[in-house]
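# nightly structure sweep
# worker-07 picked up a monomer target from the shared queue
# config: single-sequence mode, recycle default, output format = structure tokens
# input follows
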Amino acid sequence: MATKRILVVDDEHLIRWSLTQMLVDAGYQVDSAGSGAETREKFKEFHPHMILLDICLPDASGMDLLQQFKKENQDLAVIMITAHSHADSAVQALKLGAEDYIGKPFNLEDVLHSVQQVFEKCRLRDENAYYRRVLQKKFESDNLVGNCPKMIEVFKMIKVVADADDKTVLITGASGTGKELVARAIHLHSRRADEPFIEVNCAAIPESLLENELFGHERGAYTDASQRQKGIFELAKGGTVFLDELGDMPLGMQAKILKVIENKRYRRLGGGSDVVTDARIIAATNQNLPELVKQGKFRADLFYRINVMNIDLPRLSERKMDIPHLVNYFIDQFNHEYGRNIEEVDARTMSCLMKYDWPGNVRELRNTIERAMMLEEGRVLGSDHLIREITDCTEAAAEENVLGDEDVGANDCFVLGNFRLPKEGISLEEVEKELIKMSLNRWGGNQTKAAECLRMSRDTLRYRMKKYGLTGAGDDGKA
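# output follows
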């Protein structure tokens, strides 16, 4: 690890010398300055990680220097040096970004301890920021892949509701469509991104424990409540509470959640007063809430309150044009995760994946690709490792095509893959356009592989894509 650089700034020579010797002995690289002008020069030349900065200098204010240096380098750690008579200024310096202050006269061991603590605090802050970026990268787009019209609308809605981050959001869709991922994307694109995101599965927690989980309890609220416990709404403190499977929440709890949404207040178990929360609520369900309202299983007032901003996720069977993109995304993900080197999917496998209806949606597709990649020994993902339901679906579709061809008759239609030559004929340009679209779909938008498949150069493919107004896999012909 590189040696940390510390700049000691004080107009008293003895203080500068003492601090410098102590810090050098502790293993730091140290320089010093006795005036504002010298400090500015050393700041540019020495590039310190930390400055021990006297508030009063003969030609400058330490407070002004603090603001200037923090503006130029937000990661700079500053410890102010101040006489006891300037204690109010020290407090003001903390508000302006200083990490700590030491008062004169001081103990050198106390100064060293403060320096070490501040560096440790900065290390933990940087480490936390790094892992937050890693998590954000993982959840921002994980599984949220696609360019079909329905998914484009979903992405637009994520942006809208993220900006309006004081509003409750309802995410609906079948199991496996990515409701949690959408909730996390909303959180990470909102001003609450630096605050907690806490998920609660309303179907997995018994009714007797759910209230305690959400709202916490006071000491003595029940037999084993030996001390106060914070609930999820309190722990979220300015972040997001994600209520998954809201349709399974008991009616009694629904009334209390409605109060939280409307008044931003709740009461701990055993508590005598309300607690205020500023956490945002995002709810999700795979159930038909209007039907549950009719059956008396879901409160109408809660449904109308949460259904203001709704994001409805399409089933994978409704956006099959996104399957090649998802497959390539999962292959890249699992290559990295498991150290594999799968390069592509063969034509039969992609055909199987495209024809299957995916009742488990994106989650089922992800699990299918993961299983196949774990079993595949080569670099091309074949259909041998797909489950029987997927391959049987493709064989059944092929049989239907054969039967359909026999019924049509030899003079009515010529079949080439998925393309049929109509009896009235068709222009060659339409055929070429359709083949380009099919090839791009097959290779998930990879123009190099699509061009090789069509026995043409990549430049020729791009020229003809431009000619027909095509932009990528699954194109509907609109630029």
